[in-house]
């Protein structure tokens, strides 16, 4: 499950917001996610925003962004997937915006995060070489 570090924010007693959190966890990469959540909640936008923040400690947008960055961190740690592909996979179309948000939340660029936190092959069970090559080429990312 993405954003395991945010799990503590789901035991708040607000069933409507809990359902929204479940929906976010499965659909975090969708572009119009907040509008969908408001619609599905049946609440007016301001009420939804207020209840979401009261239940989770995050605005809906900050929650989704944090989730996306946490998922990007996981992918950077455990895959060789390029930064641009990770950006799209977690729901961002603009790589420059993704990099800025990532740096703001993680304190380092995606490239530096990968360099610092990527698990070595012997821990992950030796990832297969990229595109069938005998030597795993490191994709230029950053």
Summarize the structure.
This protein is mainly alpha-helical. It has helices at 15-27, 33-41, 45-56, 60-78, 83-89, 95-106, 110-117, 121-124.
Topology (SSEs and partners):
Elements (H helix, E strand, L loop, with lengths): L14 H13 L5 H9 L3 H12 L3 H19 L4 H7 L5 H12 L3 H8 L3 H4 L18
Description:
This protein is mostly helical and 142 residues long. It is built from 8 helices and no strands. It has helices at residues 15-27, 33-41, 45-56, 60-78, 83-89, 95-106, 110-117, 121-124. Helix 1 runs antiparallel to helix 2 and helix 4 (60-78) packs across helix 7 (110-117). The model is unreliable at 129-142 (pLDDT under 50).
What features would you highlight for this structure?
142 residues; mainly alpha; 8 helices; disordered C terminus
- Quote the distance from N terminus to C terminus: 25 Å
Helical proportion, percent range: 55-70%
What's the overall average pLDDT, rounded?
85
Q: What would you report as the Rg, rounded to the nearest angstrom?
A: 17 Å
Derived from helix and strand composition plus strand pairing, the structural class reads mainly alpha
Shape: elongated
Number of helices: 8
Note the main sheet: none
- DSSP strand (E) fraction? under 5%
Task: Tally the beta strands.
Answer: 0
**What is the N-to-C succession of helices and strands?**
HHHHHHHH
Q: Low-confidence spans: pLDDT under 50, at least 5 residues?
A: 129-142
């Amino acid at each position: 499950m993405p954003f395991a570090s945010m799990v503590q924010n789901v035991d708040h007693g607000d069933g409507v917001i809990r359902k929204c959190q479940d929906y976010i966890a499965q659909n975090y990469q969708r572009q119009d996610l907040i509008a969908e959540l408001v619609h599905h909640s049946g609440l007016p936008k301001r009420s939804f925003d207020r209840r979401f923040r009261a239940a989770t400690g995050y605005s809906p947008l900050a929650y989704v962004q944090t989730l996306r960055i946490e998922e990007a961190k996981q992918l950077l740690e455990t895959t060789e997937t390029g930064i641009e592909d990770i950006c799209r996979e977690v729901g961002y179309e603009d790589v420059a915006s993704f990099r800025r948000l990532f740096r703001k939340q993680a304190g380092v660029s995606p490239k530096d995060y990968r360099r610092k936190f990527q698990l070595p092959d012997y821990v992950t069970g030796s990832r297969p070489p990229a595109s069938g090559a005998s030597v795993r080429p490191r994709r230029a990312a950053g």
